[in-house]
Write a structure and sequence with these properties.
CATH topology of one domain: TIM Barrel
Order of helices and strands: EEEHEHEHEHEHEHEHHEHH
Structural class: alpha/beta
Helix content: 25-40%
Strand order of the largest sheet: 3-4-5-6-7-8-9-10
Number of helices: 10
CATH superfamily of one domain: NADP-dependent oxidoreductase domain
Number of strands: 10
Radius of gyration: 20 Å
Strand content: 5-15%
Low-confidence stretches: 1-33
Distance between the termini: 58 Å
Mean pLDDT: 90
Length: 375
């Protein structure tokens, strides 16, 4: 007899920090629903802007992020994926470390069962930091494919260039005693296995995330298959103009995480100098002029600038509004120029847990002098 409405409850008080999560799945684990249907008030996916990758492949220029952090259960993320697909999303940004690929995979099965072909979906996943070893890359990808119930990924990224593991949910002051700096020779061993994934037909494209110009220069010099995208923090208060220009001139599409300034990120990831683009007077004024929420302005700016934002939300009103925003009336040239002037170099995701030496500041991870920070 099929098991229905499974609900797992793990007592937080009984778990070590790195196991502190909640699982609340309302899926029939033995029989998938076929009740998924497009929403009557959704956006026609054909109207969503696209990026053209190498070889002429089209990637939707806005996606739905799936990182629920430590405040959204895997089941809730999966429900958001199903509902977002119903209102017109076709691009979904996943990762093994998010801890919800199995639930998202069930959602994909319902979406495809409802009439959306696999070819109409764009699914990204990522290699986590403790799987950089040559014997780990392919098995990790196969695990994501099995969890997502897919035969191939459209995009597979190296999540961070540092092979340094840290427990999920840890404090930013946590340090791994075995942490290592970026070593290009080691990274290229990982990248060769990423290229092999393409050869095997398990992934269509490979890319990077959280990279810097000097690291990308070396990768572009030595790669047999160049990265198709670089995923990077991009929002009006952190526009990264030099890196943005470099990747575009190198034929790499920039994908922007935290496109709204990550207003719901955990308290442990906040620092006093952080700023909020959603409350910036310029963004607020442009939003009022267009009669939209400031979040929509940030996403319009991103798409018109040439990056692909991947906002996360489980609120239907929000993710539908986001999608409608990028297909609606564009920002004016003056709007774009005004937003271009409010950049503040405000990096929100600093990566402190990847530091490899005592006394280092987080800036060392980002090669601030234009050269890879030495070991």
């Amino acid at each position: 007899m099929p098991v229905r409405n499974i609900r797992f409850v793990i007592r937080v008080s009984e778990c070590p920090d790195y196991y502190r999560f909640y699982v609340s799945d309302h899926y029939d684990m033995n029989k998938l629903s076929t009740s998924w249907t497009p929403a009557a008030d959704g956006v026609d996916p054909a109207l969503v802007p696209h990026r053209i990758l190498a070889g002429g492949v089209r990637m939707p220029a806005i996606g739905l992020g799936t990182f629920g952090s430590d405040h959204v259960s895997p089941g809730a993320v999966a429900e958001a994926v199903k509902s977002a697909a119903a209102v017109g999303y076709r691009h979904f940004d996943c990762a093994s470390v998010y801890g919800n690929e199995r639930q998202v995979g069930l959602a994909f099965q319902e979406i495809v069962g409802g009439g959306v072909s696999r070819e109409q979906l764009w699914v990204t996943s990522k290699l986590w930091n403790d799987k950089h070893g040559e014997s780990d890359v392919i098995p990790s990808c196969r695990k994501s494919l099995a969890d997502l119930q897919l035969d191939y990924l459209d995009m597979y990224l190296v999540h961070w260039p540092f092979p340094n593991y840290h427990p999920p949910g840890c404090d930013v002051r946590t340090r791994n005693p075995d942490a290592k700096p970026y070593l290009h020779e080691s990274f290229m061993k990982t990248w060769r296995k990423m290229e092999e994934l393409v050869d095997l037909g398990l992934v269509k494209h490979i890319g990077t995330s959280n990279m810097t110009i000097p690291k990308l220069r070396l990768l572009l010099r030595d790669a047999r298959i160049s990265p198709a995208v670089n995923e990077m923090e991009l929002h009006p208060h952190f526009q990264q103009p030099e890196l943005f220009q470099f990747v575009r001139e190198s034929g790499i599409e920039p994908i922007g995480f935290c496109p709204l300034g990550s207003p719901n990120r955990p308290e442990r990831d906040r620092t006093p100098e952080d700023t909020d683009p959603l409350t910036d007077p310029v963004i607020v004024a442009i939003a009022a002029k267009h009669g939209v929420h400031p979040a929509v302005v940030c996403l319009k700016w991103a798409v018109q600038r040439g990056q692909t934002p991947i906002p996360f939300s489980t609120n239907r009103r929000n993710y539908l509004s986001n999608l409608r925003g990028v297909v609606g009336d564009p920002l004016t040239d003056d709007d774009m120029q005004q937003i271009g002037l409010i950049r503040r170099s405000c990096r929100l995701i600093k990566g402190q847990v990847f530091l490899w030496k005592e006394g280092q500041s987080w800036e060392a991870l980002w090669d601030p002098d234009g050269e890879i920070t030495p070991p």
